[in-house]
Amino acid sequence: MPATHHQYDLVIAANRLPVDRVVAADGSVSWGRSPGGLVTAMDSVMRERDGAWVGWAGEVGQAPEPFTEGTIHLRPVPLSAEEVRDYYEGFSNDTLWPIYHDVIVQASFHRDWWRSYERVNQRFAEAVAEVAAPGATVWVHDYQLQLVPRMVRQLRPDVRIGWFDHIPFPPVELFAQLPWRRALLEGLLGADFLGFQRVADARNFVRACRQLLRAPTRKDTVTVTAPDGSSHTARASAIPISIDFQGLESLAKTPEVASRAAELREQLGSPKVLMLGVDRLDYTKGIRHRLKAYEELLRDGAIAPPDVTFVQVATPSRERVDSYRELRSQVEHTVGRINGEYAPIGSPAVYYQHHSYPQDEMAALYLAADVMLVTPLRDGMNLVAKEYVTARHDLGGALVLSEFTGAYHELHQAFVCNPHDIEGLKQTILKAIHTPDKDKVRIMRALRRRVSDHDVARWAARFLDALASAPARPERQEQQDRVDEASRTARHAGEDLKEREDRHRRLSERRR
Ligand code: F6P
User: Fold this and answer.
1) How far is the CA of 190 from the centre of ligand 1 (A)?
2) How far is the CA of 333 from the centre of ligand 1 (A)?
3) Which ligand 1 atom is nearest residue 39's CA?
4) Do 162 and 265 belong to one domain?
5) Which segments of 244-290 are extended strands (E)?
6) Could you list the residue range(s) of the whole structural domain that residue 254 is in?
7) Percent of the chain residues past pLDDT 70, beyond the cut
8) Which single residue of 80, 157, 197, 512 could bond 406 by disulfide (Cβ 3.0 to 4.6 Å)?
9) Looking at the domain assignment, is residue 470 inside a domain?
10) Residue 196 sits in the same domain as residue 284
């Protein structure tokens, strides 16, 4: 569809659009689904609304023209090669990402990266200001766009702004390392409402505002005073994200998915126990820890192929960032070693898949897997855990879940592990294998109930309700007062007109 200059009552701003533009070596162009949980969640929310989505189309250079996908108006934001390097790979994923994930790897600080981050955030804010209707709701997402709330506020004081943090918000002791900590907090405080995955994340944010900005705080609110002396409050609460339970469950119930699941098990040598890991290839996901525990279980003789096998799907991610490159080579080295050491010919101990799969194939894998290994060292939520239990409409399977995920706070009945404790992780994996089926069914039923009662639609509704009930800001109140005044005048004008008409009617009746 061609570009429109329409404005929208709901505007999403996220680093990526829900679709990525891929240009092949032969020049042909195709669109694929963007990686990550954010898109999985927001895509289903936006499909039911008539709104706009501002984001990067995933390629370097000029952005494609705005276009419409289903009911969503997509407004691509361009990133140059330097900006992909400095704003996306650099500041977002080599500075903020490690700091926000407990510094599992060292963070890098570069002033050029910060300048690029500011520039790109400003570009996003301008695109938002362009497509937002008067009084619109603007929903900004994630750590890549923390300056956008304030920038949008400056451009469009009439709109209501929310921000949702898909990843953890770090304790102030780690956040304080950032040389740009004040600007980041001030950027976020442009929002009326800030949503976090866990109560601890919201608290960390409020505490950072108190300690680093000396802002007055009360429970979940921060009071912000502008240079002109006016003040407003921003609220921060936990609203954990979820998935489209019904959509995925219906997909997993289709005969095609069921027969694909059976076929997969057969192709994998019909093991007694099939274990599965599904992650972006990221050091936060605990893939190395998982492999270490698995390797030791093989070494101890506690498990062995072909009775037990393990499929690890590792979606390529941020491949030009050094720490991700290193992780890939370590994981691939370990997989090679494990197979070389413990797998007889024709029965691999680990099937390693370095690509992403469409949703129906993922549903089949979930249905086929007896044990799902979700072992992050730190994860904002982890929607894979929620997807696995959603797909298990047969009440089969067992979820091993790290206590360092946001999902743990909702799915604590799972087989819980601390991935740093390799001995403990090994025992948890064995427990997940050997617990009697009737107990696993009971656990799975409880996990599924939680996700079905708290699906993505409920998450979005809770966020938007909280944003709608955020206190009006002085500048927005003034704007609202002007709108009210204008409609009062129009109403009075209407009443005057009606009075004049009545008088005229009475006069003409008398004349008759
Ligand atoms: O939720 C974390 C997140 O960084 C999202 O913001 C992002 O869409 C997803 O993971 C995938 O990461 P990337 O866009 O860097 O491939």
Assistant:
1) 23
2) 25
3) 8
4) no
5) 273-280
6) 245-454
7) 91
8) 197
9) no
10) no
